[in-house]
Amino acid sequence: MKYYYTKILTVSAVILSILLIVLGIILGQFFHLFGKNVDATIQQTYWVYLLFTLVLVFVVMMFVMTKILQQYVQPFDHFTGVVHQLARGNYLVRAHNEDSKINHQLTNSINQVAQKLQGNSALRAMEQERLNTLVSSIGSSLLMFGRQGAVNLVNRVFEETFQRNGEELMGKTFKDIGLPSDIEKEIETIFLTEEVRTFQSQVVLTEGVCHLDVYGAPVIGENGNWLGIVIIMHDITELVHLEQIRKDFVANVSHELKTPVTSIKGFSEMLLDGAVEDPVIRRDFLEIMYKESNRLQLLIEDLLRLSSMERGSFEITRKPVDVMEVVEQSIKIVQKKVQEKEMRIDLHMPEQLIILADHDRLVQVMVNLLNNAIAYSQEKTIVTVSVEEIDEYVEISVRDQGIGIMPSELPRLFERFYRVDRARSRESGGTGLGLAIVKHIAEAHHGTVTVDSEVGVGTVFRIQLPTHEQL
Questions:
Q1: CA 445, CA 358: separation in Å to the nearest integer?
Q2: Residues of 216-244 as b/e, b for ≥16 C-beta within 10 angstroms?
Q3: Same structural domain for residues 260 and 163?
Q4: Mean of the pLDDT values across residues 267-278?
Q5: How far apart, in whole angstroms, are the C-alpha atoms of residue 208 and residue 185?
Q6: Cα distance between residue 80 and residue 164, in whole Å
Q7: Nearest to 163 by CA among 151, 186, 146, 179
Q8: pLDDT for 240-263, tens place per residue?
Q9: Cα–Cα distance between 405 and 388 in angstroms, integer?
Q10: 356 and 265 in a common domain
Q11: Which of 75, 122, 214, 447 has its CA 20 to 30 A from that of 138?
């Protein structure tokens, strides 16, 4: 940049030219002072020497002026350019070190300023990157609104949860970004009261209902200036679901324990009061009490077993097991129930298939599945058990011709105490924990359990277990 240097040099050339022209005019009038009849040749020679001298003086003076300006003015043009670059945000630019002591001090001062600005810029960039990383890494949706209610910060979780584009939301007010009405009202309340607010909200999204725990607070600057508000929305859908499961579990356990205890207590009181004299009726009462006590014992054992599985404190002892022998032993255990309902169990399996598994646990799985199939099937129907090897897994399927299960009930089928038909399950002596136990045992073997069902046609449970132990 040569703004000052060029301008001063141009002005100096103009002034010098004017002075030399005036000087030439004055010197040209000397002939009239010494005489009027001066030879024309002498006058012409005089004018040539005068013109040459003036031109020479102009050149010499401009050369001297140029050197002076280069020494004292041109560095200021350089410094001005550096300052302009710093003002535009180019903190990498530096001033050149000149020979002059004054210029050297000025150069060092400008470079020190540039270095500090560069350091501050790098620090701000690093802090901004940290802030962006922190905001993006927060597992909750985050919104920040300015003093006028316009969005000025959105994180990635909010964009993913609400299917919004953060850049499109910038500058819009909280009433224009599609938030639920209750959240909008709370945000408006925070703007009016400038107080911290916490509340819960439900949002209907494409994947279902999302439960949110919302925290809103005003943002106060270092000088006490009110800058806006921040809204943090934490997804508590899973917590709400777990809380509902806990409540259902407590209610179901209370109900399942209350029913047999009430029966045992009622019949025992009648027997103790001597109200039943008939031996046959008394025996019926005792049989009911015995049956209910067995049911209570089964429930407690299943609860303890399931609790042990969920804590991970039970162990799977893997040994070579013949799947055919497991199936046949399980069928013998439920054979009495099969005969009572005049049902038949068909087998489709090879003569022998060895896998590494826990024999007793597999028998427990098969008994639970067979009892389930028998309980929900009509009399004189068929239960089909199939075993086949698929790649590195063995698949065991139990298919019944029962009442079937609604598609809406399938996701909850493996929850504790969940029953498709409570009356039928209770009549069969089930505790409602069988399928939950089946799932835990299958997963402990690094396997899976799935179910397909059609109402009025039947249900099929499939268990896939690895043929070799997989860690």
A1: 8
A2: bebeeeeeeeeebbbbbbbbbbeebeeee
A3: no
A4: 74
A5: 23
A6: 47
A7: 179
A8: 887 877 777 677 677 667 767 877
A9: 25
A10: no
A11: 122
Alpha helices, DSSP H only, in 312-379?
323-340, 359-375
Instruction: Sort strands 382-390 and 344-348 into parallel, antiparallel or unpaired.
Output: parallel
Cβ proximity of 17 and 58 under 8 Å: yes
Q: Residue 458: which region, alpha, beta or left (left: phi > 0; alpha: psi -120 to 50)?
A: left
In sequence order, what are the residues at sequence separation of 6 or more whose Cβ sits closer than 8 angstroms to the Cβ of residue 192?
Answer: none
In a domain, 77, yes or no: no
Cα–Cα distance for residue pair 72/78, rounded to 1 Å: 11
Query: Are residues 203 and 296 both part of a single domain?
Result: no
Residue 169: how many CB atoms within 10 A of its CB?
21
The number of C-alpha atoms within 13 Å of 136 and in the hemisphere containing its C-beta is 7
Question: Does a structural domain hold residue 223?
Answer: yes
Tokens of 164: 């919004």
Q: Looking at the structure, do residues 218 and 246 belong to the same domain, yes or no?
A: no
Q: Do 330 and 266 share a domain, yes or no?
A: no
Query: How far apart, in whole angstroms, are the C-alpha atoms of residue 354 and residue 318?
Result: 12
Rounded CA gap, 261 and 273, in Å? 18
Residue range 109-131, pLDDT digits in tens:
777 787 787 778 777 777 777 77
| Residue 79 placed within a domain | no
C-alpha span between 295 and 261 (Å, rounded):
10
Residue 379's φ and ψ, nearest 5 degrees, are -65, 150
Domain total in the chain: 5
* Predicted TM-score (pTM) of this structure: 0.51
Q: Which two tokens mark 236?
A: 């508590």
Give a yes or no: residue 62 inside a domain: yes
> Sorting pLDDT into bands at 50, 70 and 90, what band is 32?
low
The domain of 14 spans 3-72
Q: How many C-beta atoms lie closer than 10 Å to residue 149's C-beta? A: 16
